[in-house]
């Protein structure tokens, strides 16, 4: 059966076994679109090699591999089932995973799309909030793979580049937080701190004009509004690595300070992570939970990642369905480059679908 619409699920990816940790880190620290280091050709591989044993131990602690491909595949399957029902005019649909630093790569997805006879393609970021380091880097790599494969005319493309406040995403996140709050004793529930956490970015990207911080904040406030609770809430960042300055405050620094202020119950909300991976299973569940208990926080609970939650699968389907109905190649924000951008490839698109022309109105 020929696939009419292909949806490319873009994400960072993760090592599928311990032997892949080294190559994964080498690709990460070689990518100047996410980390810019002095003498990067030399320093990047050096940092990657030095970090490999420690990162391998971190992955060993969560089972020896990243579960990101597993969850992305389940999310994609659920999304397609709902999407075929909601948008029969563009069906049948099929999802293709394209990771940035681990297999399957963009080139793998493109080859399968060509074999399936896809003509209409949607590049769908799995980062709800846009950043040049995440969505931007993944899209740039996708367009490079398209050109290197000689497939510039094979598909007509549109881009789903962000969805930080989409009602379906916010509803799924709110349900996750509500579940976590129920794990806190009732007497302490209303005083529980909602500690929203997102992956940190190098400050150099933020100062260049990256929209990530305000899109993260928009997601956080939308979830808090949907919850309708009176719980205090705070936004922190995690996972900073390498000899560069990173966006803060870091969750690792915040935990002892909030404990010193008398906070004894915390629900961590991974607002930028829609699937379990090393940042949720390793950093939050193991490292930060241990730190929290050491400094006197009695209840430290993580809101579950969305993973294969039906509410989230339906949200993904609705995001794509709405996008296809609009018949637009990208959002109004996509072509707006950061004020300090120096990368000529940023915010490009290969063979974009023709935008829907609004009907003229007679006077």
Task: Outline the fold blueprint.
Elements: E1 5-11, H1 21-30, H2 40-61, H3 68-86, E2 93-99, H4 106-115, E3 120-125, H5 132-148, E4 156-160, H6 167-181, H7 186-189, E5 193-199, H8 203-208, H9 212-227, E6 233-238, H10 251-260, E7 265-270, H11 278-294, E8 299-302, H12 310-326
Parallel strand pairs: 1-2, 1-3, 3-4, 5-6, 5-7, 7-8
Helix pairs in contact: 1-2, 3-12, 6-9, 6-12
What descriptive keywords fit this protein?
363 residues; alpha/beta; 4-stranded parallel sheet; 13% strand; disordered C terminus
Q: Could you characterize the architecture of this molecule?
A:
This protein is globular. With 363 residues, the protein is of the alpha/beta class. The strands form 2 sheets. Strands 2-1-3-4 form a 4-stranded parallel beta sheet, sandwiched between helices. A 4-stranded parallel beta sheet has the order 6-5-7-8, with helices on both faces. It is 45% helix and 13% strand.
Average residue-wise pLDDT: 93
Largest sheet: 4 strands, parallel
Tell me the overall shape. globular
Number of beta-strand segments: 8
Which strands sit side by side, in order, in the main sheet?
2-1-3-4
Helical content band:
40-55%
Distance between the termini: 48 Å
Total helices: the number is 12
State which percent range the strand residues make up.
5-15%
**Unreliable sequence segments:** 358-363
Order of helices and strands: EHHHEHEHEHHEHHEHEHEH
Structure classification: alpha/beta
Radius of gyration: 21 Å
